[in-house]
Amino acid sequence: MKLQQLKYIWEVAHHDLNVSATAQVLYTSQPGISKQIRLLEDELGVEIFARSGKHLTRVTPAGEAILQIAGEILRKVESIKQVAQEFSDESKGSLTLATTHTQARYALPDVIKRFMKHYPDVSLHMHQGTPMQISEMAASGDVDFAIATEALELFNDLIMMPCYRWNRSILVPKTHPLAQFKRPSLEQVAAYPLVTYVFGFTGRSKLDDAFKSRGLTPRVAFTAADADVIKTYVRLGVGVGIVASMAIDPEADADLVAIDASHLFAPSVTRIGFRKGTFLRGYMYDFIQEFAPHLTKKLIDEASMCASKAEISELFKAIKLPEY
What we know:
By secondary structure, the protein is an alpha/beta fold. The chain has helices at 3-13, 19-25, 30-44, 61-88, 101-107, 109-118, 131-140, 186-190, 204-213, 227-235, 282-291, 297-304, 309-315, and strands at residues 49-52, 55-59, 93-99, 122-128, 145-148, 158-166, 168-173, 194-197, 220-224, 240-244, 256-260, 268-275.
């Protein structure tokens, strides 16, 4: 069994079983990959992939178990490389993030600007997606850090630490009836069609819970994952917008009226996390602390030793989170 063979089966499984596409990504030949996979299967005595002719059709049950272990081995290998690189040159490397549009567009730019000033030789890469996609990218090792608010039940394999609290604002055109109210009621808001986030994005569950607790069923006329798209449709008169307050730009959104909605909805908490067992390089600690100053190296290391989400929650119980 060779490390290269484990790399091949892992990459094939994560390229929709397309050996040709995998060969292009790995800068090798399709026949070479197919041969190595066959040699590994012959050595193990089981099929990792089911086939129809020359085409791979699915991962077998044995293959699922083998791929899980292969992923863990490859991540350990990457950790070894990270350790070596940390001792050879602590200021060079790469950092990959997975997050939502709101975090990428509004919460992270200043953080990334400061970080890149301190670490000009660290290349930074960002992926945007749904909480499900973010969780999968972090758990599979495709990214170093996941930054998310919703669907924390998806992040079982990650150490997720609280960064800050935030809430929402209502957005309407200046001529809208709600524009005259500084503290509208939930009933008043529910009287109009809503334009807000897709379920699972940017604190949407808190919004849904608030209406449900009052026995209200709002008419959601339009949803999007992008706060800027939501604002566009508010301007078109599609409905009343509900967005994260951090997504409001006083200058760019001067044509709209923003109404604080913190009296209507419970605050949400944005978290940053990484896979259990990940070796964190010095600049990775620094990035986390740049994003959330209360997350010191000592606290991050203590969180890494926690065995469950409950232990992590208890660890951060006494910490007062900043408000965004």
